[in-house]
């Protein structure tokens, strides 16, 4: 259940649009929201003073735009490295969800250009909702969840169902991508409900009274997820993103993700809709 949301704002408005759509869902409406703007180090005191003043205006504008219950909003203007500060504030606030903007930088670009969202994605264990600068934020009605037998897929399913339970006319799109093309061909989309991998998710959707449709496919999972999300015109993609590193290395970036070899990293960059990464331990 999402009770504490951390949203980072930078004056672009995309994250605010996303939160406003989330706030239309009854289960989210009682959440406490921390609105964060981070001012990075400046060369001179005058420059810092100017940036802090600008940051204060960005915060005020975002809060006015969100139009939330003032008793449930906490505005925070922080100085420091944005990458570290977002993680720090999320831990301080005990955030159940981090909403961040993303430029959708690809692989090494995100390292070389010092991407804040990429860094936070690597290091936080908290669910993240990434909103690319070039995506169109829509009212949440159709949510896609890629399903396999992993615990992270179960976590993503639970997150999606918790949202859809309160959305009138909402639909869950369950997707199973089988790397074995021969087995995938045995179960076409027309009879996808017979896919045994989707069976537990279907049962849970029925139990919670959530409408659903099923899709089966084959091929590269990351590419297929992005293709099917666009083809199905989904409003939100909820994807399990496991923490795969041993605890001793959890303060270090995951090189597989940094180099773009993980499904979640590919989807984060290429999906044409907002992506909620449900984080669980592997």
Automatic annotation (TrEMBL):
<feature type="domain" description="UspA">
    <location>
        <begin position="1"/>
        <end position="132"/>
    </location>
</feature>
<feature type="domain" description="UspA">
    <location>
        <begin position="141"/>
        <end position="279"/>
    </location>
</feature>
<comment type="similarity">
    <text>Belongs to the universal stress protein A family.</text>
</comment>
<dbReference type="InterPro" id="IPR006016">
    <property type="entry name" value="UspA"/>
</dbReference>
<dbReference type="InterPro" id="IPR014729">
    <property type="entry name" value="Rossmann-like_a/b/a_fold"/>
</dbReference>
<dbReference type="Pfam" id="PF00582">
    <property type="entry name" value="Usp"/>
</dbReference>
<protein>
    <submittedName>
        <fullName>UspA domain-containing protein</fullName>
    </submittedName>
</protein>
<dbReference type="InterPro" id="IPR006015">
    <property type="entry name" value="Universal_stress_UspA"/>
</dbReference>
């Amino acid at each position: 259940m999402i009770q504490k949301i951390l949203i980072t704002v930078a004056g672009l408005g995309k994250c605010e649009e996303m939160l406003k759509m989330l706030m239309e869902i009854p289960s989210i409406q009682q959440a406490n929201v921390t609105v964060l703007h981070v001012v990075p180090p400046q060369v001179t005191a005058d420059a810092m003073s100017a940036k802090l003043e600008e940051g204060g205006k960005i915060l005020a504008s975002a809060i006015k735009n969100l139009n939330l219950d003032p008793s449930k909003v906490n505005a925070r203007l922080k100085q420091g490295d944005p990458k570290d500060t977002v993680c720090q504030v999320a831990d301080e606030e005990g955030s159940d969800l981090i909403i961040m903007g993303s430029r959708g930088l690809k692989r090494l670009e995100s390292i070389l250009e010092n991407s804040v969202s990429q860094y936070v994605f690597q290091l936080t264990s908290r669910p993240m909702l990434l909103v690319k600068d070039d995506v169109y934020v829509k009212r949440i009605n159709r949510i896609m969840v890629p399903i396999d037998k992993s615990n992270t897929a179960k976590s993503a399913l639970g997150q999606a169902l918790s949202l859809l339970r309160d959305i009138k006319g909402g639909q869950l799109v369950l997707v199973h991508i089988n790397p074995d093309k021969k087995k995938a061909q045995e179960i076409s989309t027309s009879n996808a409900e017979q896919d045994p991998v989707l069976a537990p998710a279907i049962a849970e959707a029925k139990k919670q009274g959530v409408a659903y449709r099923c899709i089966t496919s084959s091929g590269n999972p990351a590419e297929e997820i992005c293709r099917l999300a666009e083809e199905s015109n989904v409003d939100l993609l909820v994807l399990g993103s496991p923490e795969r590193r041993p605890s001793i290395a959890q303060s270090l970036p995951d090189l597989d993700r940094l180099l773009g070899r993980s499904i979640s990293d590919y989807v984060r960059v290429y999906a044409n809709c907002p992506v909620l990464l449900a984080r669980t331990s592997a």
